[in-house]
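Narrative summary of target 7.
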Amino acid sequence: MTTPIPAETADDARRYRPDPTVLTALTSPRLLTREVLAGLVVGLALIPEAIAFSIIAGVDPKVGLFSAFIMATSIAFLGGPPAMISAATGAVALVIAPVAREHGMDMFIATVMLAGVFQILLAVAGVAKLIRFIPRSVMVGFVNALSILVFAAQVPHVIGVPWMVYPLLAIAIVVLVFMPKLTKIVPAPLITIVIITGIVVVFAIDVPTVSDQGELPRSLPELFIPHVPLTWQTFTTIAPYSLAMALVGLMESLMTAKLVDEITDTHSNKTRESWGQGAANMISGLFGGMGGCAMIGQTMINVRASGARTRISTFMAGAFLLILVVVLGDIVGMIPMVALAAIMMMVCVDTFDWHSIRPSTLRMLPKSETFVMIATVAVVVATGNLAIGVVVGVFVASVLFVRRVAHFVTVERTVETTSAEAVARYVVRGELFFASSNDLTTQFRYTHDPDQVVIDMTESHVWDASTVAALDAIVTKYEALGTSVEITGMNAYTKTLHTRLSGGLG
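Modeled conformation, tokenized:
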């Protein structure tokens, strides 16, 4: 007997079902070829990035390379959005770099593993739902800032280098631009790597290569159990770094997941992505990796430049990375850095939201939206920290929104005179909360009103205790003058909140 699936669970399953699925890709030679080749391109692109981030973190290059392999292969099974790439990242490396420098490798790995625990706890607490509170202007700023940072990271590979780098760069860009117009069977980035590497090898051109970035490992990752005392002092030492890594990693991963959803027209499970990142970081730490999070640059290579759509590409990126550095390290070391830099540069150009800075767009959008986008970009570029930029962007957007909404509340006064007595009627319209209700008490003419006042709340809604306190203050002022006050028209929520808090706020 088969147990029926509850309607909500079935709906969720359909909502998060990828298209195409892994099974579809495995049974389609065309799709499978696309996914595998996309994974190969990303695997190649991950190598110099992982080495560079290892240097930032102050650890051996193999730590970053193994971390990239473990994160990519783990998140292929555990993560939310299909085709999203997770590996060692600069944002995470910057956060935990002081641990390796000041406390050693064992504490460093313990920090990574504790960050994974924090991410799982945050996932259980529902932190992924907070992504809905990130405005579009902040999202645009995030994408633009990241494009700028990734592009800037490639500049050292084309500045102060042998002059032959420049014609190779031009050839690479031409291939990347025009090859997709001829064929999409083989990803343009892979063709670019093959062509540029072939030119350099055949003509014996002396330009910087991958091998110049650091020594590639010759063995598989091994189980690594950090030898640290299980004491409160150890926890208090590494917990701040672990929490910072957890927050930065989740924020960058969730923002990247949201971007992937928009590009692929899908809806991924952000909660799954959150705890998946935590589990992947714990696994990474167990094998001596530095952990990480989603990488927007490599994800864009996979999703946008190579057209990948399933978890096969993510898994193959990690698998190819390991094969390339352990088995084919000598061949990979021959790849010119200019080829990888050109790929990343073109991805940045393609990822940057050029529409957001067009004069026609800037004239059309509210100035507050543009200001939030610029503030997000400025903070991210200035600090090099995506999390700080996003938090500042959300804060600025919230302040501007509250300021704008606060002016939508109106109070209209009329005096109705009957044969018996006069009544002052105030009609309050709008959303009442701490910002909009602060000057509510000033909208009433206490000494000029007759002995009976009616406050009509039919067209308003009370959201917080600040508004209830303001209403209490209004009633108190009238009662001090001997005026009778009646509040009418409250909706169910407003009435419940007012009944519970009125008179008890001091």
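The beta strands are 86-87, 293-294, 410-417, 422-432, 452-462, 484-488.
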